[in-house]
Structure formats: C-alpha cells, structure tokens
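Open question from group meeting: does this chain pack into something compact, or does most of it stay loose? Before anyone orders reagents, we agreed to write out a predicted structure and look at it together. Recording both the input and the output here so the notebook holds the full record.
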Amino acid sequence: MFGLKRNGKKNGKQALKSDYLIELRDVDKIYRSAAGEFHALRDVDLQIDGSEFVAVIGKSGSGKSTLINMITGIDRPSAGEVLIGNVPVHRLQENSLATWRGRNVGVIFQFFQLLPTLTAVENVMLPMDFCNMYARRERKQRALHLLEQVELADQANKLPSALSGGQQQRVAIARALANDPPILVADEPTGNLDSKTAESVFNLFENLVGQGKTILMVTHDQDLAERVSRTIVIVDGEIVDSRPTEAIVAGRV
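Structure tokens returned:
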C-alpha cells in the first residue's frame, strides 16, 4: 500500500531494514477497557522520506494522534513494526526509549507543555541536559541561538506565564530542536494560535524543511494542510489517501 518497499515476507520473518526515514508496517493499535475494544489503527502502512513536510488530517477520533504516537514511541503498536532511521522503535525498552526520542524526534504539542517554573532558555536547555548532549558550557549558548532562530532571544529569561501563546509555541519549537533531531512531530501546533501567529509558525516549519528537517504535522487547518508537500488522510484508523498534496487538492476541484 502506498509504494511500500519490503524486505522479506509480510507474514514471515523480516529483516528490520527500511529504505525510508520513517516506515510503519502493518501497524494495528487496539485499546482495551471495561467497555470493550477500540481499534485506533488498522493495518497501517506508511513511508516518509527525509526532508518531507507531511500533514496528517482526519476527523477527531480518526487515529491521527495515535499514529504520531507510534512514530515518537509515546505509544506502542498492538501489532506491526515501526522503523525510524532503521531503528525498530517498537522493540526499544522503556529505559532507552526516552533517550532515543530525545535525540531523534522533536515533539511539539498543541498546548506547548513548557515547564512553568523554568525560563524560556532553561526549557530549551532541558532536552540537552536530559540526553547529555553537547558540553555543559555549550548548552545555554545553543539554547540562546535557537531562541534567536525563532525570534525570541529577547524573551530568554522570562517564564512561560509571561509569554503569549505564540511565543510559548516558538519556545516549544526551539526546545524540539535542542538536540538537532532529524524529525519534528507536531500535534496541532497552530490549534491555539491566531491566524497571523499560525502563519508565522508555519513559515518557520517551511524554513526547517528547507534546512533538511522532516516534519510530520497533525492539523485541522485545511489551508495549512494544502501547503505541505504530502497529505495523509486517515479515517477510522485507516490511511485512505497518501499523495502529494497538490494531487489531493486537484481531485477536489
């Protein structure tokens, strides 16, 4: 499905090797509760190359957030394989998963998730401290440089409560870039921003893709979704379309 390249047989043993930066193979996710089973993802195959800017769209409850949680390792599949840069993320132990994520995937949340007692620059330094990246004396300088990239160097010593929503989102983006990960995953990153600020954040994403980053963005904003390089449409846990965005938009005309 959608141009999958496989190594080995689907139902047999496979060499865990991928030709893509991100690849999901036959991924299912089932949540079980007293009320019964909920099938959040069904037989998902997905491939994303380096330097792609991909939007994931779908109705609430369609499986968008579950899909990106598979890629970030925040959640694990009930069945199937998740390969990120040829690392089988679904097999990583908990004690190594957080460090792997901190070095390889920058996560940007809709509600920012900044630590309220840390300043902007301290929030950006946090992933470097956690993953022991860069020399200790270099971390603050790098954090300030990243805040400068998102045009917030002058707010470096302020707490999140003293920043606007748009400024907090920019700090969150700088934090996601702290360890220079190849992949950024953003869950509704403009959902709580006004249109002008949302446009500014999207332009920043475009610049990062131009610098070689791969961005996977969940969004309800149809206008923004139509400006990325590829759109993935998910319905009831299944990917029903995955094409260059211009092809999907042309099909609606």
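Observations to bring back to the group:
The CA atoms of residues 129 and 136 lie 8 Å apart.
Confidence is low (pLDDT under 50) at residues 1-13.
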